[in-house]
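Morning, I've got a small favour to ask if you have a moment. I've been staring at a protein lately and its backbone has me curious. You're getting the sequence in one-letter code plus the fold written as tokens. I've dropped the whole record in just underneath, so have a look:
=====
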Amino acid sequence: MTEPAPDSPRLARAGRLGLVLLSVAAVAAALWVIGGPLSGRAEARDGARLDDLRRLVDFVRCVAAADGGALPEALAPDDRCLSEPPLSDPQSGVPYAYARTSARGFSLCAAFERPDLVTPESWAGQILDPATGCINATLEAP
């Protein structure tokens, strides 16, 4: 029968340490690739901001229709359309930006935390520009 080599406990410790380091590296790499829980929370908050902007587009269109086709000068609650529109970012409290861009056009903007993950999309004639965080929309023709 052969005796174990005197370095076996040291090799076993080194092997366990190597496995631990490999596991830590794998978890770190996974978090780097997928972003981790903080990134997921930021994406969820950005999703809520995008939903708010969509609701505000509908709100502005409703107010304009109620006012005979004229875009509002500024965003303000209006019981004819939505009594409590989402006028500001729920996370930061900063008001969403609204601007009339033409007689029938307007933009609504939010500060997204992860604009690199917000995809440009178009729905019902509006286009979201992730670089600016703005939706550019127009009123439908009368």
Remarks:
- Helices lie at 8-34, 36-66.
- The chain has two helices and five strands.
- The longest helix spans residues 36-66.
- The mean pLDDT is 82.
